[in-house]
Structure formats: C-alpha cells, structure tokens
Amino acid sequence: MKGKILVTGASGFVGSHFVETAFKAGYEIHAAVRYSSSLDAIRPFVAKFVYLDFEDICGLTSFFAEENYTYIVHAAALTKAKTVEQMHAVNVRVSSNLIEAAFQIAVPPKRFVFISSLAAIGPVQYDDMPLTENNVYNPITIYGKSKQAAEEMIRQRFSDQPITIIRPTAVYGPREKDLFILFDTMNKGIDAYIGKAPQKLSFIYVKDLANLLLNACLVSTDHVETFNATDGKVYSRYEMANIFKQVLSRKLVRLHLPYKMVKMLAQLCGWLYRNSKQTPVLYPERLGELTAQSWACDITKAKTILRFDPAYDLEAGLSESLRWYKDNNWLK
Known about the structure:
Elements: E1 4-8, H1 13-24, E2 28-32, E3 48-50, H2 57-67, E4 71-74, H3 84-102, E5 111-115, H4 142-158, E6 163-168, E7 170-172, H5 178-187, E8 190-194, E9 203-205, H6 206-218, E10 225-229, H7 239-248, E11 253-257, H8 259-272, H9 284-290, H10 300-305, H11 314-327
C-alpha cells in the first residue's frame, strides 16, 4: 500500500472517480460520506466509510490523529444554495475546520488537496488572454464567491502548510448530472443556445481530473499552491453538439433563444422556487455563467509542476461519456 487517503465528498461525481483512480493506483481509501449517500459506485474501492461531524474541530482532530492519513482530498462542496450563508457554511467554514484539524496533530498529512473551481476566478471577455492562476478574482455566482472566500481563507490562515488548490473548469463524464441535462435535451433532437454571441469554452474529463488530483497529492511543496485545470484546449459553443451528433448519429434542430426571453424565464424560475429547498436548473446567476464570453484557460503551471498530461480532449472524453450514458440507460 502506497498510503492512506481520506476523500470527503467521496460519493459525489468527482469524488467517486477519484476514489476509483486512487484505489487502482495502490492507495487505501477512506470515504467521508453522509448516511444518505449512494455508495454503489465506490463500495468496491473503499476500505472504510466514515461519517464525520465537520463542525466539531475537536472531534475531527482526534479522528485525524487516530487515522494518520497520508493525504486528504477535500471534494465535498455545495454547488447550489438559496443563500450566501448556506453556501459559505459548507464551502468555507467546513473547509477551514478540516484543515485546522488536519494540521494541528503531531503527524499531519503530507498534503491536503482542496478542490476549488474556475468559477472562483470567473470568466473573461472574448478577446482577453486565457485565464491563468494570476487572474484577479471576478466570480459571478455565489458558488464562485464562496470558492474565492475559501481560497482566501486558506492563504490567510494556512499559507505555510502543504496545501494544493485545484480549480477545475466544467467537469464532465460518466455519472455527471448537470451537463447530462444538455445531453438529454439533445437526445430529444434539440440543440438550443442563449443568444448568438460567440463563446470560448473549456472542459475537463473527470478521469483526467482524477489523475491530476492524485498528482497533486504527490507534489513536493511546503506551502499553498494553486493550479487551474482544463484539458488545455478551447472550444466553440457548438463543439459539444457537433460531437454528440457524430457519436450518436442524431439530427439536431439548432435554436438560438433570445437572451431577454431566457432572462425572463430565469427570473420566473427564481421566483417560483423562492420558498423551495430545491434550486431550479435555470436561475439568474446561472444564466450569467452560461452566457459568459470566455472560459479559456492556460494550464501551463499544472503541466509543469504537477506533470499534468490530459489524455482526453472533448471528442474523446465525450464519446466515452455518451457511450456510458447509453449503456446505462440514462439516454434512451
């Protein structure tokens, strides 16, 4: 065994793929999950399931001292919430508690990997240079703002600790549910867009991200470092639909919906869900993210320091993903 890794959010989309990748690489995996979590995808790869109280720093400290983890990968996060307070409670305070507990024991982990998001930086204008780790923060959603706050908290409180921050762009792959809504719509023959303005988009296949996270565990730095993560390429807004048509031999009707009409719909959805615990698929903040001009990203730093060499471009990763959706009856 190469070491022992605790993965928070282990039953989630990114967490579950990392669990499988790390297990196959020879690590013992402990999965921090909720009692309500579905464990089918990770059960074969997990040596121990743990159910932690993330608000109890003393309890977390005792737990870490007893388990003596080699690495901790913090994949647990809230991507949608009704209020800023709810989002920050999970994405900032829980992260702070975990890091504090992990690094105050006698033998702390060799590295703590924090999964942030490119949303923490936010998009840029179409003609701007690709995003780098040095771009100023300009998030456009409360999720992005919470990830910014978490990153700032880490640098302010734990700057001298071996912590690696990974900022993935849009992640896709088997079992992913948000982009699957788009694929399901395409499967019905509709290829819809908001407005006609060109966009620069970036993606990362979940298997590449899982490998990058494992590389991030092994990098030898004794302070906080941040890395953006994409497959290194930039795509037009039509690329995904073109690949979909090719892989599944579908004919799609391409529609450009007026921005003002979709904005009104987003506002209506926000109002209809105002008293619900659920968040609608489309809401005003989400609209801004979907219509952003450029998520183009430079991953030179990750390639150089983390030896990141993406194996999948969008065509290869999406082809594999769509076949999985078909084989597992997500797409009929």
